[in-house]
Amino acid sequence: MQFDRIIKNGTIVTASDVYRADIGIVDGRITALAGDLNDSDDIVDATGLYVMPGGIDSHVHIAQPSGDGIVMADDFETGTRSAAMGGNTSIISFCMQEKGDSLRESLKVYHAKADGECHIDVAFHLIITDPTPAVLGQELPALVEDGYTSIKVFMTYDGLRLRDDEILDTLESARRTGALVMVHCENEDAIRFLIGQHEANGDLAAKYHATTRPIAAEREATHRALSLAEIVDTPIVIVHVSNREAMEEIERARMRGSKVVGETCPQYLMLTADDLDQTEMEGAKFVCSPPPRDKASQDACWDGIERGVFDLFSSDHCPFRFDDPAGKLNEKGNKSFRWIPNGIPGVATRLPILFSEGVQKGRIDLCRFVAITATNHAKLYGMYPQKGTIAIGSDADLALWDPAKTVTITNDLLAQGADYTPYEGLKVSGWPVHVMVRGKTIVDEGKLTGEKGFGAYVPRNRSSMMASHKPAD
Ligand code: URP
Ligand code: ZN
Ligand code: ZN
Ligand code: ZN
């Protein structure tokens, strides 16, 4: 049999196995996995490399408006370009409903932003900010059928947050339609109270972003979200968990029988609140929510990764330029931390950081690396087995990793829209040197070779978790 392309002599890694085989590709899909394939004019030599499923980052914000003239640093071209440089072949980005708009209208806007711009494949979660009966009763069921099978709701942020009754309505609709709900858990009223106190005291520096969003505010909201989900018997995903107390809420809910998935992110392994405590507004570079905590919280997040509390490791890429009046250094942000836009870039650094700090330092094995960076995302968000694994029939979305390559991270390397990375100067061991989407090389020798427009929109199935969930009724 003649193949369009063969990946030869690599060590294949999936969420369950590590083995030597060649990969045959026809029409962008894997059609053979065998010991010695030769029938192709296009042979990629993977000697000494791990051949892994390309990363799937299921928590990425791109081109999402934040009001007050603040703009995100990445559009779909730069965001997906940077994702590719970091070994990703798919992202799931957010489509945010503007209050008063229908979900369909919102999707039209985000598809228009993404169409023809992407370097890698893209799907959309729906952020619901206005859960009207029409949205939950009519739109959501139809959209789930159309392949938009996950939503995010916020318990914090003025203008985005939902009340508990609205969250219950949304969860109930999700249960009926089979949508999977992601929840951002922080207690907005507590945060507003603390912000008011700090501003009254004249405590305005970036570091107070962290003190006004304490662990207790995250733990309480996590407990509440889990309780609401339990009340309507609906599975949920608790996103961007930053500390042990919130993590333990997830474990307790699981012990009660709830179906809960936990997600954590590189910032909670690598940064602390001390990073926000810098002069000249440098601390603004690290402002995200929940905020980075302390060393004990970092250890807790590693523990959660190792013990399987966290099944998802995502970037929560939410980039703003630093030296920019439309970014971190906007006029109001200079006056109070309250106005510094929340979010940090990270789509390109997620995988190298976990590979280096996790696999190379012996905290997790290769299979777990693949599971929490690709396979679980595909299964949980309905892209499996098209995406997230190396198997006959799957898309040939592959990242070839050189475990011996040492890289010092600098912003220049990441091809992103932001003018900084929170990880500038970090030395990592292991790098995705060759990345292909549906069999086509988009990064080679660490250089971008793909073109925008090759990345395609991916309609999704229902989550594996929703499909297997039999409501108690
Ligand atoms: O600070 C953050 N995380 N910004 C992105 C939006 C979100 O809450 O995920
Ligand atoms: Zn969030
Ligand atoms: Zn986010
Ligand atoms: Zn190559």
UniProtKB/TrEMBL annotation:
Q: Which InterPro entries match?
A: Amidohydro-rel, Hydantoinase/dihydroPyrase, Metal-dep_hydrolase_composite, Metal_Hydrolase, Metallo-dep_Hydrolases_sf
Q: Which residues form the Amidohydrolase-related domain?
A: 50-441
The record's listing under CDD domains reads:
D-HYD
Q: Which GO molecular function terms does the record list?
A: hydrolase activity, acting on carbon-nitrogen (but not peptide) bonds, in cyclic amides; metal ion binding
Is the Transferase keyword given for this protein?
no
Highest taxon listed in the record's lineage = Bacteria
Cofactor(s) needed for function: Zn(2+)
Modification sites for N6-carboxylysine: 152
Q: Which GO terms describe its cellular component?
A: cytosol
Question: What does the UniProt keyword field contain?
Answer: Hydrolase, Metal-binding, Phosphoprotein
Post-translational modifications: Carbamylation allows a single lysine to coordinate two divalent metal cations.
Keyword check for tRNA processing, yes or no.
Answer: no
The residue ranges crossing the membrane are none
According to its UniProt record, which protein family does this protein belong to?
Belongs to the metallo-dependent hydrolases superfamily. Hydantoinase/dihydropyrimidinase family.
For this protein, the record's PANTHER family field holds: COLLAPSIN RESPONSE MEDIATOR PROTEIN, HYDRANTOINASE/DIHYDROPYRIMIDINASE FAMILY MEMBER
Q: What does this protein do?
A: Catalyzes the stereospecific hydrolysis of the cyclic amide bond of D-hydantoin derivatives.
- Any idea what this protein is called? D-hydantoinase
